[in-house]
Amino acid sequence: MNLLFAIDSSFLRPLETTLLSIKMNTSRQASLHIYVIHGGSLGLDSVDGRSLSRYCEALDIIYTPILANSDEFSDAPVSERYPETIYYRLLAHRYLPNDLDRVLYLDADILCINDLSKLYNMVIDGDYYAAASHSRLTELTTVVNKVRLRSYESEGYFNSGVLLINLNLVRQRVHANDIYNYITTNKYNLLLPDQDVLNGLYGDKIKDIPDEIYNFDVRKIMTYQLISNGEWDLDWTIDHTVFLHFCGKEKPWFKKYRGRFDSLYKHYEHQSYRLNEKLNLEL
């Protein structure tokens, strides 16, 4: 299975926690290969004296760093609000090997608590992507976003934090100039740049997947229980949900973070720290 991440140095430790949770909860028969796109300023193999490549090797995960070429974005609208990094997941097909037919992009503020294989192997032949819309959590916001981005034919406003990418189709039909032109034309309407672009240009080419399974917004656990008439409670979530997504500004690795899944995250985070300590002792 091919997994994609795009991070800077501030997300290295959370990425390690995410990877450990994936490894612990995915079938042992599954081969994992991660691709990490970065801008070159972070030195992914030497942050805090630790090596991401050694960490992945210890987890039996194949690791391929990808240095984004700034020259490829010379025509892209770039500013403090629209940094170069917003293009990494949208144009990842330009960096990934041509023999890959799909890749699963994940934000590094995600915890995997059940096997992701079913999502990864999902049939998406006619769609560019598969993603969760969170439409039942924020129905009014979804309508506003569709009007704002003029994406009337899409099924909802999709979250880009979990994105199964059909590389065969995306290579043919997702073009850098279309993305650049869309940002230039709509720059005053864009609130979440990469996510807005994804929905505005390709919202009708995204397969809707259930967010309570594949992109559970941890801030909305009470809403999930309400819309499911109490079925999607904490026990159900632990048994069925694949990805817990710690959306928003507050992150579970912050000392002052308090949330329903705080202890669960810290369990995986602690296991990740212990693995790093072991690797450092072996140096």
From TrEMBL:
Cross-referenced InterPro entries: Glyco_trans_8, Glycosyltrans_8_dom-fam, Nucleotide-diphossugar_trans
Keyword terms: Glycosyltransferase, Metal-binding, Transferase
Pfam families given in the database record: Glyco_transf_8
Presence of keyword rRNA-binding: no
Gene3D superfamilies listed in its UniProt record: Spore Coat Polysaccharide Biosynthesis Protein SpsA, Chain A
Gene Ontology MF term list: glycosyltransferase activity; metal ion binding
Top-level lineage group: Bacteria
Protein name: Glycosyltransferase family 8 protein
Organism name: Bavariicoccus seileri
